[in-house]
Amino acid sequence: MPVWFFWHDGRALVFSRPDAVKVEHVRRGSPVLVHLESGRFGNDVVVLTGTAQISSRSAAEVITEFRDAYESKYAEAITDYGMSLDAISEMFNTPIVFTPERLMAW
């Protein structure tokens, strides 16, 4: 499932709805895989494995810290979504912090 994410200090920050299945899986300690589209036509595959935790900070707190960079990265998508970044962070208010441990690429 496509998700918006932001890299910071070697970790990916992902914002999710609190009732999403992925949030429940992270809370239970399930292993995490992140597949990234790569290459000019998206045909290069990058898979990261690692761990994830639910942040103790709210999405609004995290967004405040990285707002300019996040809005710059997702400006077009935010416009297409038809909601302000504040409204999006209220809906997707559960930050997941993914720490990669292994990388596979081909």
Automatic annotation (TrEMBL):
What's the superkingdom here?
Bacteria
- Xref: InterPro entries: Split_barrel_FMN-bd
Q: Which SUPFAM superfamilies match?
A: FMN-binding split barrel
Protein name listed in UniProt = Pyridoxamine 5'-phosphate oxidase putative domain-containing protein
What organism does the UniProt record list as the source? Agromyces bauzanensis
